[in-house]
TrEMBL record:
Its EC number is 2.4.2.17. The lineage of its organism: Bacteria, Pseudomonadati, Pseudomonadota, Gammaproteobacteria, Lysobacterales. The gene is hisG. The keyword Amino-acid biosynthesis applies. The chain holds residues 1 to 223 of 296 of the full protein. GO terms for molecular function: glycosyltransferase activity. This is ATP phosphoribosyltransferase. Its cofactor is Mg(2+).
Amino acid sequence: MNENRDRLRIAVQKSGRLSDQSLDLLRRAGLVFRSSRDRLFLYGENMPVDVLLVRDDDIPGLLVEGSCELGIVGRNVLDEQRLAGADAPAPAELQALGFGSCRLAIAVPDNGLIKNVTDLAGLRIATSYPALLAEWLRKQSIDAEVVLLNGSVEIAPRLGKAHAICDLVSSGATLAANQLHELVTVMRSEAVLASSPRAQNAATAAQIERLCARIGGAQSGDG
Ligand code: PRP
Ligand code: ZN
Ligand code: MG
């Protein structure tokens, strides 16, 4: 652990699809929190474990730099970081958490011009997951241009920025609202517990193991 602290830190999405269920899981694992005034930091009252509420995309970086020992994040976010970071140390997936299931999918406008995966050749695809998309395109031998957008990817086709998008789909409501539909699934994802790639001292490693066991226990109690 960081030499300056003797408490574990777990990073959780501040506001988004995984936020509520992530905190629920930690509560069911037995953690009792006190919220800070800015509500970005939850102090663990009954265990030496604090929760940081952050943007989900920042979670892999916090784990790599060692600011947090654990994180709850979508597998897609972890895998994107691993691919983009090449040989750099990457956070490990400790366990799948059984919620937040979704898919990273390529979606196209409902106008019917793009019918097959092969129609994507030579087109622009907007995404917040450029490394995952590029790897998938390479495996499919499709030569398309990857356009990075960090938010509101679903409006890219209407803006003329891209012909298609590659984004997470859960209920499908976002696609439907933007006159888009799925063409193909790139990967399946769900919330996972991830750990920092930094070496931990024995006391911290034991603390992490205890917390993981509690989280595992809270999960198996799920209906
Ligand atoms: C994803 C995706 C869409 C939405 C799709 O964002 O970018 O905005 O979920 O869900 P739906 O199919 O149920 O409409 P997410 O909340 O995962 O993360 P973000 O805010 O970090 O983009
Ligand atoms: Zn995000
Ligand atoms: Mg989104």
